[in-house]
């Protein structure tokens, strides 16, 4: 872990990453790809130590309230958040200024900030996004070794529902020949129905691989699924998109289930829900 002073914190679309790199160890992580230009080891977390100050300044300058997003490239609840609490500091700032929040994680550490999430949701809007890929906890610990197992994430979704905080699930990636089974997808969908998620984001049943990410993923296949790398190489070569052979049937199951239960499932509809700020709260800022 090392510390830097960032020059800015909010993107043009009001997203922020407080950390750079990750300690979750997910075998499929796209953020490892060389295109992102990491100059340090991926597990050597870069901490943007001045993020709260930058966020405070950025929100003071904004003339209109909006949703602030975090978690797209880097999980805001990695292990270092236990002591650094940068995410908590930023949530306090977002709540104090009356902005909304769309936060994405794979960790139940987010429950430590339930008080702040409730406060933001009560005054404007807070949406928690939780990734679910593998229903079986034993397989989950192989695919996503250092994050909260799926059963704990589902329990967190129940907690958010009990507290009136809306949720969206990311059903991605689905790994060919690993978790691309009807049973896995159906069980995750059942959990989503039971916990009342507002939407499920799915870009297709498969995954993407590119330089940096591909090598890490294939090394994990060699460790945990001997022989599967050769199957991938024969079937997909160096392709960026690796659809599951069961993709069509699984996507039909996904769409039909979501439609039947009133769950948003088109990506553009889910993103519109995440980005839309409640009109009654979109007044001009006093700052």
How would you portray this structure in words?
The protein contains eleven helices and eleven strands. The model has no long low-confidence stretch (mean pLDDT 96). The longest helix is centred in the C-terminal third of the chain and has 14 residues, at 247-260. The strands form three sheets. It has a six-stranded parallel beta sheet, with helices on both faces. A three-stranded mixed beta sheet has the order 1-4-3, with no helix packed on it. It has 287 residues and is of the alpha/beta class. The protein has helices at residues 51-61, 81-84, 86-97, 114-123, 137-143, 150-162, 182-194, 213-224, 228-236, 247-260, 267-275; strands at 2-4, 15-16, 19-20, 46-48, 67-70, 100-105, 126-131, 167-170, 199-201, 206-208, 241-243.
Poorly predicted regions:
none
The residue fraction in helices comes out at 25-40%
Largest sheet: 6 strands, parallel
Strand order of the largest sheet: 2-5-6-7-8-9
Order of helices and strands: EEEEHEHHEHEHHEHEEHHEHH
The number of helical runs is 11
What is the mean predicted local confidence, pLDDT?
A: 96
Strand content: 5-15%
Using the CA coordinates, give the radius of gyration: 19 Å
Please provide the count of β strands. 11
| Ends distance | 35 Å
Report the principal-axis shape: globular
